[in-house]
Amino acid sequence: MSIETILLTVKRDDGDRLEYMVEEAIGLATQTGASIVVAHAFETQSDVDDALSALEGVDGTPSDVARRLGSVKRVTKAIEDAGVEYEVEGVVGDPGEAIAALAERVDADRVFVGGRKRSPTGKAVFGSTAQQILLSAPCPVTFVREAE
Known about the structure:
The chain has 7 helices and 5 strands. It is of the alpha/beta class.
């Protein structure tokens, strides 16, 4: 199975694990000649609108807003510096469902997602976006856990 498209999920609060996820995605893309789709999920359209109101001169699509987020800018800078082809996609909806649907739409061969260590009870009560992506994505998923 060849790897042509890597989906790299980026949240605003990915913290230290974001750097590791980016390094791993770039490493895989470099080895395989794959491109990277950098994705950010907005839970609601009002989240997009709120972010948009803080920006000037930006169109109103979720992808346009995602491109302007600090975490996405850091990621795309690193990808550009590595000479890897990429695009940015912003999606709206339940993050787990929206990212899994995006993985299918872009025909991703691998998804990188970050998450926190949570107890089984915590996952059952509060849900887990990463868990939903792990179970729903149409391809292998690399999970990067927050450092302890």
